[in-house]
């Protein structure tokens, strides 16, 4: 039998990292080391892998330790969240460059065979995302560079660093640009949640409390594509194991407006809510969609789970979290 493969996943306590870790660990030939800066009790889901909680990857010595004897690294560690978080924490997002740098240096020094870096659609030039009827973004649209301020620039810089570590040092780096990933077991409240989870939470709260209203950030006409977590994990592994050295889009090409997203969740929940629009809230770019031509041509694959199907699973999970949270708050109120 071939020897077990030692795989390190950073950011394993987060949403995507947790699902990716579970998928990789399901292969009995993989020994997965799950790493995150959060204490174990704050991880998004339990891990059956070897776990390394409270690991500060801004410390290069920690990165060298966790990558020792590793065959592969999936670096998903980053300080990020939805648009509300990104727009108000630009410096925090930029500081993730310390993690990206330290992990690449450690991987090179420890002779890691393959290194995957999770980038973002936020690397794309803002002037190509000013219309709701946006032309889908091709990989080459990242240049000339005008990335999302803060988070997007860190991601673009780390992409280039991964490229040069491959060219100069022979480290086999692979890069995927994630487009709006959603699904169960992700952040759904607290300020770091993304649009699908936030909308599911607001609709579920309206259903449970009987308050027939929902607040939408912006005018609701801004457009996006949203990729379900199963597609994200599938694509991540395919890209990481491929021979494609240039960054690839990893996102759905199913474009919807935020208003349409709300309508889908309302239909799933069986309600129709009164809408109010907060025009002062963070909105991000006007329109963004993924051009999947290259991933189809090179890998013969693209995300295929429909938004409706993914949202049904996501809403059911978020509904349970909201119901539990409201019930717990009522118990505390009665106890006091």
Plain-language structure description:
- There is one protein chain.
- With 336 residues, the protein is an alpha/beta fold.
- It folds into 2 domains: 5-182 and 227-250, 3-Layer(aba) Sandwich (Rossmann fold); 195-224 and 254-290 and 307-328, UDP-galactose 4-epimerase, domain 1, CATH 3.90.25.
- It is 41% helix and 17% strand.
- The chain contains 11 helices and 13 strands.
- The strands form 4 sheets. The protein has a 7-stranded parallel beta sheet with strand order 3-2-1-4-5-6-11, with helices on both faces.
- α2 (60-66) crosses α5 and α9 packs across α11.
- The radius of gyration is 20 Å and the shape is globular.
- The mean pLDDT is 94.
Task: Describe the secondary-structure layout.
Elements: E1 5-10, H1 15-25, E2 30-35, E3 50-52, H2 60-66, E4 72-75, H3 83-88, H4 90-94, H5 96-109, E5 114-120, H6 151-169, E6 172-178, E7 181-182, H7 195-209, E8 213-217, E9 223-225, E10 227-228, H8 229-240, E11 248-250, E12 255-257, H9 258-269, E13 274-278, H10 293-299, H11 307-335
Parallel strand pairs: 1-2, 1-4, 2-3, 4-5, 5-6, 6-11, 7-10, 8-13
Antiparallel strand pairs: 9-12
CATH superfamily of the largest domain: NAD(P)-binding Rossmann-like Domain
Output the strand order for the largest sheet.
Answer: 3-2-1-4-5-6-11
Radius of gyration: 20 Å
Tell me, briefly, the overall form.
Answer: globular
Number of helices: 11
**Main β-sheet, in a few words?**
7 strands, parallel
Number of domains: 2
CATH class of the largest domain: Alpha Beta
Using the 3D structure, state the CATH architecture of the largest domain.
3-Layer(aba) Sandwich
CATH fold assignment of the largest domain: Rossmann fold
For the terminal residues, how far apart are their CA atoms?
Answer: 61 Å
Beta content: 15-25%
Q: What is the β-strand count?
A: 13
Low-confidence stretches: none
The sequence of SSEs as H and E is EHEEHEHHHEHEEHEEEHEEHEHH
Q: What share of the residues lie within helices?
A: 40-55%
| Mean pLDDT over all positions | 94
Class derived from helix and strand content: alpha/beta
């Amino acid at each position: 039998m071939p020897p077990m493969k030692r795989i390190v996943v950073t950011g394993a306590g987060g949403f995507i990292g947790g699902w990716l870790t579970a998928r990789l660990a399901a292969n009995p030939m993989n020994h997965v080391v799950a790493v995150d800066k959060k204490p174990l009790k704050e991880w998004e889901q339990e891990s059956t892998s070897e776990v390394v909680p409270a690991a500060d990857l801004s410390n290069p010595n920690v990165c060298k330790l966790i990558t020792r004897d590793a065959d592969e690294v999936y670096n998903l560690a980053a300080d990020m969240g939805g648009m509300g978080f990104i727009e108000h924490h630009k410096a925090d997002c930029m500081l993730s460059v310390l993690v990206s740098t330290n992990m690449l240096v450690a991987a090179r020094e420890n002779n890691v065979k393959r290194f995957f870096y999770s980038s973002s659609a936020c690397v794309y030039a803002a002037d190509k995302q000013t219309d709701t009827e946006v032309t889908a973004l091709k990989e080459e649209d990242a240049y000339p560079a005008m990335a999302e301020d803060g988070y997007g620039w860190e991601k673009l810089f780390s992409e280039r660093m991964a490229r040069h570590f491959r060219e100069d040092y022979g480290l086999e780096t692979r890069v995927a640009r994630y487009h709006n990933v959603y699904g169960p077991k992700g952040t759904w409240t607290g300020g770091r949640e993304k649009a699908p989870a936030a909308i599911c939470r607001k609709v579920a709260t309206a259903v449970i409390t009987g308050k027939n209203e929902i607040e939408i950030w912006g005018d609701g006409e801004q457009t996006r594509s949203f990729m379900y977590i199963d597609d994200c994990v599938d694509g991540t592994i395919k890209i990481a194991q491929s021979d494609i050295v240039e960054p690839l889009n990893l996102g759905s090409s199913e474009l919807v407006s935020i208003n349409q997203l709300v309508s889908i969740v309302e239909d799933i929940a069986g309600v129709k809510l009164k809408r109010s629009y907060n025009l002062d809230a963070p909105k991000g770019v006007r329109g963004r969609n993924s051009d999947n031509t290259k991933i189809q041509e090179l890998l013969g694959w693209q995300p295929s789970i429909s938004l409706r199907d993914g949202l049904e699973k996501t809403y059911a999970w978020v509904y349970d979290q909201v119901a539990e949270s409201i019930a717990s708050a009522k118990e505390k109120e009665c106890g006091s």
